[in-house]
Amino acid sequence: MFVRPDQYQSVVATVVAEEPRLDVAVAFWGEGADVHIHPEISKPIRMIVNLRSGGTNPWMIKGLLKRAKKNPHIEIQQCDCLHAKVIVGEANLVLGSANLSRNGLGLEGQELAHWLEAGIHTTTTDEVRAAQQWFEQLWTSAETRVITDDDLKAAIVAYNRNRNARPDYSPKGPFTFAKYLPHELEVRDAYALIYNSRPCEEADEAGDRYH
Question: Is the Cβ–Cβ distance between 116 and 97 less than 8 Å?
């Protein structure tokens, strides 16, 4: 089944709810992605993420690791070269262009409205089994490893750098704050100098009317 952009989130939510266990290899994770992909704390799940490139929210991963310490059925590792977006269970496979709440450009939350995602959902046994085997090979490969405190510190630096350099999708033209919403300026090196010498004529008239 081809998954259109308007279907992607609901298809993933259905698969997450149906599957008794999940293997998830998705490169970039954003705030809230942990709840989206693992709403049921008792469900076994293995996750592989990409921390080094700066596309993943490190504080969200830190929260997942804290949950994993208390729940051994929650496992999470990292792979520096991961760019795949694969969610596979015992009978379902979803793969496509969408990361979990963000993408590699440093976007998150409402900023993702600029991006159209698509994918494939299949329950074909051979395809699901092939994805399971691929995940297992990646999980045990030399390219996949545990996440250390130093990894998280480095990920914070990379994440902040990526956020600051994310694309500007505001309307073109002279600068005005009216072009931006607060989340579009978050973490950016954005500065504003506001000054005047005296109120303009319209401001004087408005002041007179007020008084």
Answer: no
Per the structure block, which two tokens stand in for 93? 């496979």
DSSP state of 29: B
Residue that the structure tokens 């760019």 belong to: 83
CB 121 within 8 A of CB 9: no
Tell me how far apart the 2 most distant CA atoms of the chain are, in Å: 78
Q: Is the dihedral of CA 147, 84, 52, 167 positive or negative?
A: negative
Q: What is the pLDDT of residue 7?
A: 82
Q: How confident is the model over 64-89, as pLDDT tens digits?
A: 999 999 999 999 999 999 999 999 99
Give this prediction's pTM: 0.76
Report the DSSP beta bridge partners of residue 124.
Answer: none
Amino acid present at 50? N
- The tokens of 200 are what? 């303009």
CB atoms within 10 A of CB 75: 16
Cα–Cα–Cα angle for 97, 101, 102, rounded to 5 degrees: 70
d(CA 187, CA 133) in angstroms, rounded, equals 40
Of the pLDDT bands very low, low, confident and very high (cuts 50, 70, 90), residue 144 is very high
